[in-house]
Design brief:
By secondary structure, this protein is of the alpha/beta class. It has 17 helices and 12 strands. The chain folds into 2 domains: 5-220, Glycosidases (TIM Barrel, Alpha-Beta Barrel), CATH 3.20.20.80; 239-419, 3-Layer(aba) Sandwich (Rossmann fold), CATH 3.40.50. It has helices spanning 5-13, 15-18, 43-48, 52-63, 80-95, 116-128, 153-169, 188-191, 209-220, 250-261, 268-272, 293-304, 319-325, 336-346, 362-373, 375-390, 403-419; strands at residues 24-29, 68-73, 102-105, 133-138, 173-178, 239-244, 265-267, 279-281, 284-286, 309-312, 328-332, 396-400. The chain has a 5-stranded parallel beta sheet, with helices on one face. The N and C termini lie far apart (68 Å).
Length: 420
């Protein structure tokens, strides 16, 4: 095998066979065992030694230096030790200058519902290494490999949608690939048992609930790669609703937009926590929701009827009022970890969008952390539904998922406004 290396890989990757049609290669597949070490049963390891992974990437890079070279592994969402081992292997390869361009997480949900916490953690760690991620082989069998139960098609759809949403939540997750087209042709019917039905289309090529669930996840986030502020048919931006996760920077963005556009800014937090609607006890600020909800909604209706405004705030139950009147919606959909970090940074600081003397104490911060933690699974879907239900057909909805996108958006608004 060692003597065959120089000829085999150039032939398999060579220009005569594929030309430049393929821009992404899985170079090393499933190198790890269940505890996260190099798999001793792996034939490449047995014959070539532990350096085979680095050598394979080096050879692939010589042949196709412009292609994305992928390290691919299965079942990390179920096996924390394997997830740790994959991160450690990738970090070592990067430190040694090995040309690993991306990490492939297969996404075979063979063992039932995965550990979402393990999956999100490992993706975050790869992102911090600077490595893009992709789901490379997704399938969701109705019968897990344990055969102890059988999922409904609705549960199957929910699992597939959440896997896709987990990718969408991580800016460095670049691709989602399903391991087959329809249930009539799947390896799992041999590996587990006939009738696993793990794919988006059934054996008659009809879309399944899983297809629609995945489609809806993708549709909800379909935005420009580089969001831009646009001139509207009836003039420049006049009414802007800034919405999104707690800690995403809604108030900061609203103030920046207000300065550029010369529009009045309303912070809903300041409106809600008016004088007399908070108290300070000991070292913490304890905020009591004493303002009448109906009065709060009525005040928002009055503000929304104004000709020009920027209103920032969460308050999901009241989104209908703002979204129906806004000509522009800026949806700050930053990763959960970013929002948590920003929340911790602002703890106990004076905020201009709160009344004088109010600071977020530890008790209040704990409530906000709970809200942020539920954001990907509960709060974001509520916001997306509100956008779909209440925005007008000509409303510009601009979704910003990274700091780069946010800065680019503000720069575009500033440049466009300066040209007017």
């Amino acid at each position: 095998m060692g003597s065959a290396r120089p000829s085999h890989r150039p032939a398999s990757l060579g220009e005569d066979r594929y030309g430049a049609k393929i821009d992404r290669w899985i170079v090393v597949n499933e190198p790890l065992d269940i505890v996260g070490g190099l798999d001793p049963e792996n034939h490449f390891l047995q014959v070539l030694g532990p350096g085979y992974v680095a050598e394979a990437f080096g050879m692939a890079d010589e042949i196709w230096p412009e292609a994305q070279l992928v390290l691919n592994q299965d079942l990390v969402e179920y096996l924390p030790a394997r997830a740790d081992g994959l991160v450690e292997l990738a970090a070592e390869l990067v430190d040694d200058g090995v040309p690993v361009d991306s990490i492939g997480l297969q996404g075979h949900l063979l063992l039932g519902e995965p550990s979402w916490a393990v999956l999100e953690d490992v993706m975050d760690r790869f992102a911090r290494l600077g490595l893009p991620i992709g789901f490379t082989e997704i399938d969701v069998p109705l019968t897990p490999v344990t055969k102890d139960k059988r999922f409904t098609v609705q549960t199957q759809a929910s699992l597939a949608a959440r896997l896709v949403r987990t990718c969408l939540d991580e800016p460095r997750c670049r691709s989602v690939t399903f391991w087959g087209f329809d249930d009539g042709d799947t390896w799992l019917d041999t590996f587990i048992e006939p009738g696993t039905d793990p794919l988006l289309y059934d054996a008659h090529l009809q879309p399944k609930p899983m297809y629609f669930a995945v489609r809806d996840e993708l549709r909800a986030v379909a935005v420009e790669t580089e969001p831009r502020a646009r001139l509207r048919n009836d003039g420049w931006i006049k009414r802007v609703a800034v919405i999104g996760c707690i800690g995403a920077g809604k108030s900061t963005l609203a103030r920046a937009l207000g300065e550029i556009l010369g529009l009045p800014v309303v912070h809903l937090d300041r409106l809600w926590w008016q004088d007399g609607h908070y108290r300070i006890t000991g070292p913490e600020t304890v905020m009591s929701r004493t303002m009448d909800s109906d009065a709060f909604r009525q005040r928002q209706r009055e503000l929304a009827r104004e000709e020009a405004w920027i209103i920032d705030g969460g308050y999901i139950p009241d989104l209908d009022i703002r979204l129906a009147r806004a000509d522009t919606v800026v949806f700050l959909d930053l990763p959960r970890r970013v929002c948590l970090w920003r929340l911790l940074k602002r703890h106990n600081r004076r905020r201009s969008d709160y009344p004088e003397g109010v600071r977020e104490g530890l008790g209040w911060a704990r409530l906000l952390i709970t809200w942020i933690w539920a954001y990907p699974s509960k709060k974001r879907p509520e916001i997306q539904r509100a956008i779909a239900e209440h925005c007008n057909a000509d409303t510009d909805v601009i979704r910003l998922r990274t700091r780069k996108h946010l800065d680019k958006f503000l720069a575009d608004v500033d440049a466009s406004h300066a040209r007017r």
